[in-house]
Fold:
Amino acid sequence: MHPILVELLTKPVGWLSLGGSIFLLVMVPLGIHLFLRRQIRNDEGGEEAKAYELRRRARMTPGE
Structure:
């Protein structure tokens, strides 16, 4: 077997390296995705809240 594979598969440091690499490859894109989704949702929600407030104020007349 190749010496690098022996090092990765038979020693604890190798397992930690593999686990850390897999963790980073999964968690970094997932974290970016969740962050961007939250930012987009907040931006869209802010637009909707402003539009609602303008509609609400337009319905109110000074005599009411």
Q: What stands out?
A: Helices lie at 3-10, 12-59.
